[in-house]
Design goal:
The chain is α+β, with helices and mostly antiparallel strands. It has helices at 10-21, 30-45, 98-103, 107-115, 125-133, 142-162, 165-186, 194-203, 207-216; strands spanning 49-55, 68-74, 88-94, 117-121. The chain has a 4-stranded mixed beta sheet, sandwiched between helices.
């Protein structure tokens, strides 16, 4: 039996891709944009890919973002993609594991459900997931965030002792970010993207931590 195939009009595909990419308000680099366009093209051809979702400050009304957070959900095997460039933080999750991860308060997935914008979804898969989970997301674990902060502080000290100031700064910012997320989870607030954390901290009375984070962020890539 000959399998019928439907050829999608190239102009229509380009129009849909451009519309989806408009969800990203701030690209960390041209390479990040090109890599994402290629990932979307691969997703359209690979029926195992269910969704690619952008989240974080890149899709929100904040200043220029240094990072693009992407979630990719697949059925059984992850797609064959090149390594993401600097500035693209990609997490890939198997479809069957997503509900349990959300129930456990998986931070990256929870942020994507609450604040993310789908760049690609097959058969409205992400839209249906969001409708099901948006109102019942668990807060990220404060204890886990503090443990991540502890590890980042240790790496910060190690990088300082080795004279690697860039790595030390990156880990210092990571430490403050995890401490901020822990404080917000303790206060019953779902943390937003890194550039928005300081304002959230001030709203819950954590001004000193907010100022430390605000002071550290400009030095991250300096």
């Amino acid at each position: 039996m000959t399998q019928r195939t439907t050829t999608e009009h190239p102009a229509r595909r380009l129009e849909e891709a451009d519309e989806a990419l408009a969800a990203v308000r701030s690209w960390p680099s041209g390479r990040a944009r090109l890599w994402t366009i290629n990932a979307m093209a691969v997703a359209r051809q690979d029926s195992a890919v269910l969704a690619i979702v952008a989240s974080g400050s890149a899709v929100r009304d904040v200043a220029k973002s240094d990072d693009l957070d992407l979630v990719l959900v697949f059925r059984s095997c992850p797609p064959d993609l090149p390594r993401p460039p600097i500035g693209v933080d990609l997490q890939q999750h198997k479809e069957a594991e997503v509900p349990q991860k959300l129930a456990n308060g998986h931070d990256f997935l929870s942020w994507a459900v609450r604040f993310g914008r789908p760049l690609f979804e097959r058969d409205q898969w992400w839209s249906r997931l969001r409708a099901d989970w948006n109102a019942r997301l668990s807060l990220p674990s404060a204890a886990e965030a503090r443990e991540r902060a502890r590890r980042a502080r240790q790496l910060h000290q190690e990088m300082q002792s080795l004279g690697d100031h860039d790595a030390a700064t990156e880990n210092y910012v990571s430490m403050l970010t995890h401490l901020a997320r822990a404080a917000l989870s303790d206060a019953g607030v779902l943390p937003r993207s890194r550039p928005e954390l300081a304002d959230q901290l001030r709203q819950i009375g954590e001004a000193p931590l907010a100022e430390r984070l605000t002071d550290a962020l400009p030095h991250r890539y300096s």
